[in-house]
Each structure stands twice: as structure tokens, then as C-alpha cells.
Write a structure and sequence with these properties.
- The chain has helices at residues 3-20, 24-31, 35-42, 50-59, 64-69, 80-89, 94-112.
- The chain is mostly helical and 113 residues long.
- The relative contact order is 0.11.
Length: 113
């Protein structure tokens, strides 16, 4: 995940956690992860797995777009290609998406270097 989006996700998580009055320890416990791992997520040091990303969004009542971009995006702001892409990937299971993410990360790394 791009550092800009990782930092935005961390900020959104922190704001929403505080709005609910939860401590970091409480959220970590509710997510069944360690406190130290949660602090890495909330400080934007580490990206969560896709499964944990969704669990956090559900727990904190956040849409996934709000979590990543810091604001909700409606379908009108997305191109038709993007909407089709989102519909397509919604049909895949977690392991397939992880493989796709790894491949995309490798392609991006290759293109940057």
C-alpha cells in the first residue's frame, strides 16, 4: 500500500477509535491481535492483511474507501473501468487477492527501479 494511503488509513483509524472512546488495547483485543501490532497499524508503519483491513472497517464502522482515502467516494467519482475492476475483484477469495496484490507490488517495484 502506498505510504500516503497507509498514513491516511492510520489517521482515520485513530480518529474513529477515539470517537468511539476505545483504547488501542481494547481495539487490539477486539480484533484478536497484539497491542504492538495494532499500534504499528495505527501509526502507519505497517499495512494490515486484507482480512484484518475489513475487520477493522467493520469494527470501527468505516467504509473501505473512507478508511483508505479519508473520505467516502460515491460511484459517480469512479470511472467505468474502475467500477468494472471493483466488480471483478469482488468475486475472488482472499488467497487469490493476496496473490494479485503480491504480483502488483512486484510490478510497481520493477517499474520504479
Amino acid at each position: 500500500m502506498d505510504k500516503k494511503y497507509l498514513k491516511q488509513m492510520a489517521l482515520t483509524m485513530k480518529e474513529k477509535r477515539n470517537a468511539y472512546g476505545y483504547s488501542q488495547e481494547q481495539v487490539a483485543e477486539m480484533l484478536d491481535i497484539t497491542y504492538s501490532y495494532y499500534t504499528k497499524l495505527e501509526n502507519g508503519v505497517q499495512a494490515p492483511s486484507l482480512r484484518l483491513f475489513v475487520q477493522i472497517a467493520v469494527l470501527l464502522d468505516l467504509s473501505l474507501d473512507k478508511m483508505i482515502f479519508g473520505r467516502s467516494m460515491d460511484d459517480q467519482t469512479l470511472t467505468l473501468d474502475t467500477l468494472e475492476f471493483l466488480r471483478t475483484i469482488s468475486r475472488y477469495d482472499h488467497s487469490d487477492l493476496e496473490l494479485c496484490r503480491d504480483l502488483i507490488d512486484k510490478i510497481i517495484f520493477y517499474l520504479k527501479n
